[in-house]
């Protein structure tokens, strides 16, 4: 049996796994570039299942199931046949969209938390403070400090509950 492992993400993955008989401190490692796949050959069905189970906790799933998962997924697999190029390409796009939306949701939650904490702190001991809402503007730059990120000018408003 063969296990094909595809990478529908925008980052290189080092796929680490153990076959029966491998020492615990010396697992096998395969580098999988974005949009590429590798094959693990000469597996018994139980060995293939064991490798899948080792990575399931990280979102590892069959290529045919990946698009139906609501959240970001990492690597995908097929047994005895290569992962379809269209599945990898659409996975790259789908992962990007899911990560973009998760990032937006996380930034909004963070802005709302900061606003709530700031408003509560301003009110402590000051009954005259009548702040009911705040705006939090998020901006970000790359490590060089020169280029702004895609969400560099997001503004969130939070009101007192």
What does this structure look like?
- 34% of the residues lie in helices and 22% in strands.
- The strands form 3 sheets. A 4-stranded mixed beta sheet has the order 4-1-6-5. It has a two-stranded antiparallel sheet with strand order 2-3.
- The chain has 2 domains: 3-83, no CATH class; 103-159, no CATH class.
- It is elongated, with a radius of gyration of 23 Å.
- By secondary structure, the chain is α+β, with helices and mostly antiparallel strands.
- The protein contains 3 helices and 8 strands.
Low-confidence stretches: none
- What's the total number of strands? 8
Beta-strand content estimate: 15-25%
Oligomerization = single chain
The percentage helix is 25-40%
Please tally the helical runs, counting DSSP H or I stretches of 4 or more residues: 3
Tell me the overall shape.
elongated
Structural class: alpha+beta
User: Major sheet: order of its strands?
Assistant: 4-1-6-5
Rg is 23 Å
Tell me the count of domains. 2
Question: CA-to-CA gap between the ends?
Answer: 58 Å
Give the structure's gist in a few sentences:
The protein is of the alpha+beta class and 161 residues long. The protein has 3 helices and 8 strands, in the order E-E-E-E-H-E-H-E-H-E-E. The chain starts with a strand and ends with a strand.
Features:
single chain, about 160 residues, alpha+beta, 2 domains, 4-stranded mixed β-sheet, elongated
